[in-house]
Design brief:
The protein has helices spanning 14-21, 45-62, and strands at residues 26-29, 32-35. The chain is an alpha+beta fold. The two termini are 18 Å apart.
Length: 69
């Protein structure tokens, strides 16, 4: 079924999403703002998977392999 976390079956309602809009404890770091919240998670797994596939595909194309599936 792939890598990473299990897919979301039930999405949160607008009330629950509204709770996460008010990010508390902002901290300043250089010129970028850094916000800390235990309620917010960012999953970068999909980006890493896509990048990995692109790297492997480029390598195979460089080696002369044209049919990648």
């Amino acid at each position: 079924m792939g890598f990473g976390p299990k897919p979301i079956i039930v999405f949160p309602d607008s009330t629950r999403i509204g709770i996460t809009e008010n990010v508390d404890e902002p901290a300043q770091y250089s010129r970028n703002e850094l916000f800390k919240s235990s309620r917010v998670q960012i999953d970068l797994n999909g980006i890493a998977q896509g990048y990995s596939v692109d790297v492997v595909a480029d390598y195979l194309l460089h080696k002369g392999i044209r049919c990648l599936w």
